[in-house]
Amino acid sequence: MAEASDVNVASGCEEKGPAGASPESVPLDTTISRMKLLDTTVDTFLQKLIAAGSYQRFTDCYKRFSQLQPEVTRRIYDKFVTQLQTSIREEIADIKAEGNLEAVLSALDAIVEEGRDRKEPAWRPSGIPEKDLRSVTGPCLLRQRDALQRRLQRQEAENRQLADAVLAGRRQVQELQLQSRARWQAWQALHRGRKELVAVLREPIGRMTPK
Fold it and tell me: Which DSSP symbol is given to 24?
């Protein structure tokens, strides 16, 4: 009986068809995305898992019960297989959501497609760590240096504008001080001239007074 079940299991595992196609047999063509390949791999895994745990092997584990209640045994097996498939698909969906696999795999497809259009050879390490490090970090450091230089130039221009504004303010203050001093001197000169005028006007009056 065990030999017969093994034969049935083997024959079930060796069945060929579109549903049981191996993901390795699917060519990596531009029309097939990596997300599609992942879904195909999951489907193939589930099919092989169900084939390995066939109904014949299930009944071999519960011979007495399956002989007494064959219909109930079949319903239990069908429900077990359905729940197993549902549970595995839900776990795979959670993994896709947590790892954002759809976006990552789509980005990878885009990178591969972009790389196919390039005619120049792709970068390969030379075997000299220092040279490879400079080739990778050098352009990035040069971009950072250029960005810092532009920022420094903008800051220096702003500083020059502020310095010019300060100098203009100082010149304006000096001009106001000069104007204030000139007005003070003019007021003092006017005050002295007024005193002198009053004194001159008083002298003839004193001389004309009769003795």
Answer: G
Q: What is the CA radius of gyration of the chain?
A: 49
Residues 174, 175, 180, 186: is their CA dihedral positive or negative? positive
Give the predicted TM-score (pTM) of the model.
0.41
Pull the structure tokens for residue 207: 């001389």
d(C-alpha 3, C-alpha 52), whole Å? 15
Residue 66 has a CB neighbour count (10 Å cut-off) of: 19
What is the amino acid identity at position 38? L
pLDDT tens track for 51-110: 888 888 888 888 888 889 989 999 999 999 999 999 999 999 999 888 888 888 888 888
Taking the C-alpha atoms of residue 206 and residue 177, their distance in angstroms, rounded to an integer, is: 44
Which tens digit of pLDDT belongs to each residue from 95-125?
Answer: 988 888 888 888 888 888 877 777 777 667 7
Nearest CA among 118, 117, 112, 116 for reference residue 33: 112
